[in-house]
Design a protein that fits this description.
Layout lengths: L5 H20 L1 E5 L2 E6 L6 E2 L1 H4 L1 E7 L3 H17 L6 E5 L4 E7 L8 H8 L5 E5 L3 E6 L5 E6 L1 H5 L8 E11 L2 E10 L1 H10 L12 E5 L2 E4 L11 E4 L6 H13 L7 E8 L6 H24 L3 H20 L9 E2 L1 H30 L4 H34 L3 H7 L5 H32 L14
Length: 462
């Protein structure tokens, strides 16, 4: 086995330690009053209903058949919004549906407003001008213009029946981000928009139009060119990424098959207070205990295991927080947190397989270099098989209980958030373990033998 210099361990240790600090604490700075988040940490995690509570809205339709169809639309909207933790209860006898969404959402709307959008009628209309009756302030302190009036109320140019879908995109200029909502028209809608906005004959060319979602105006642009490509891109001063995501989800899923009325809106309490703090403290204590045990058992060799565990924990945490990504984090529930703990134990087990074989060889009189090589070789297949099998099982769980197109085709728009949460975190934990549970410890063990060749320094007899 080729020996590596001690510098390999030092470089790996510094890189892993730096990554761990950033993944746990994150990094952000301020430009004026605006906070710019570069890396998201543990404190940025969006927690599920079981951890931070949520908001529950109850809506009512006229019949059992109608409320079942309403439930399908709500599930589709929640899936398109990426709401992996939500609860839908349907009472067909009462023609009533209850939707619960998490309180902890990195969103410019409150949980109550999100629930309201997901259960709203959701009819998109494009109207002339932009006259409104009232102005309110939403939970992001942005002006919300509601209820069209005058010619805006009297004339409807486009409805949801003319729309085939929606998406959003980010436009960056001079380091500032602007978010746009794409409205995609079907053939009928495309023809209407091309006629309305024709530069030569269009009634609304060079004039203001307004885009409404039910009775809320979401944009009030001026038509400056012919819209004949089947897509309209709009924005507003208050358009943010989360708002664009939510509008797009509601529009893409289509309007409700019937009108629904709101019965009640209530808060839902978490399972216990300060669960996220308890999870963090328990995780720190568990990691510390594991590290102490490793040092007593493997001595110098333990540092390979310690940094492997740190990499596994911070790597899976980075996946959950979407470390350097835009927008919301993965919505973590207690089952997801359990999968994070399981992923860390997977790396502990992987290193233990390697370390115990190494210690056994050392106690049998084998020299350090050979003992390390044997430990690496004898544990390789078990570690790889274990990681691959768990990744496949977790992937099956994600497919069966997730929100992918594959799942939708077989099971419909159904999400069992606890199983999906556990499977999602476990899948990435198993994949990352291929690096943190095998590649990193074997590199560091091969490097650490350059520091000492005494068997006692690696858990052997003195």
């Amino acid at each position: 086995m080729k020996r590596l210099g001690i510098s390999v361990s030092l470089i790996l240790a510094i890189l892993i330690l730096a990554f761990s600090v950033l993944s746990v604490f994150g990094y952000s700075y301020y430009v004026g009053d605006n906070k710019v988040t570069v890396f998201k940490g543990f404190g940025s995690i969006d927690w599920g209903v079981d951890v931070n509570g949520g908001s529950k809205i109850a809506v009512k339709a006229a019949s059992a058949d109608e409320i079942s169809a309403v439930a399908d639309v709500v599930r589709d909207r929640a899936a398109k919004f990426g709401l992996t933790d939500h609860q839908i209860c349907v009472d067909e006898a009462k023609g009533q549906l209850e939707l619960t969404v998490p309180q902890s959402l990195d969103c410019d709307f409150s949980a109550e407003e999100v629930a309201g959008f997901l259960t709203s009628y959701g009819n998109l209309t494009i109207r002339p001008d932009g006259s409104y009756t009232n102005m309110t302030v939403d939970s992001s302190d942005s002006a919300a213009f509601v209820t069209p009036t005058g010619s805006t109320a009297e004339t409807i140019l486009i409805t949801s029946d003319d729309v085939s879908g929606s998406s959003w995109f980010e436009y960056v200029e001079d380091k500032y981000s602007y978010y746009y909502l794409n409205i995609e028209f079907n053939e009928v809608g495309s023809d209407k928009m091309a006629t309305y906005t024709n530069a030569d004959t269009g009634t609304y060319y060079n004039k203001a139009v307004s885009i409404w979602l039910d009775d809320r105006m979401i944009s009030n642009p001026t038509v400056s060119e012919t819209i004949d490509g089947g897509t309209l891109s709009v924005s507003s001063d208050s358009m943010t990424q989360s708002k664009a995501e939510l509008y797009s989800a509601v529009i893409s899923a289509g309007k409700m098959p019937c009108n629904v009325s709101v019965v009640s809106v209530t808060d839902v309490a978490p399972l216990a207070n300060n669960i996220s703090d308890i999870i963090f403290i328990a995780g720190v204590v568990a990691l510390a205990a594991i590290m102490v045990f490793m040092i007593f058992r493997y001595r110098l060799g333990a540092f390979a295991g310690i940094f492997a565990v740190l990499l596994q924990f911070s790597g899976v945490l980075a996946v959950i927080t979407r470390f350097a990504g835009e927008g919301r984090t993965f919505l973590l529930t207690i089952p997801g947190a359990a999968a994070l703990a399981f992923s860390v134990m997977l790396t502990v087990l992987s290193f233990a397989l390697m370390g115990e074989r190494m210690v056994s060889e050392l106690k049998g009189g084998t020299v350090v270099g050979t003992a390390i090589s044997t430990g690496i070789e004898k544990s390789r297949k078990i570690i790889l098989d274990m990681s691959v099998v768990l990744a496949v099982v977790a992937l099956m769980g994600m497919f069966m209980f997730g929100t992918s197109a594959f799942t939708t085709a077989i099971f419909g728009n159904y999400t069992l958030s606890g199983v999906y949460n556990f499977s999602y975190v476990l899948f990435f934990g198993a994949v990352i373990n291929l690096i943190s549970g095998y590649v990193v410890p074997q590199l560091m063990l091969r490097s650490l033998q350059s520091f000492s060749k005494k068997p006692s320094m690696f858990g052997g007899a003195k």
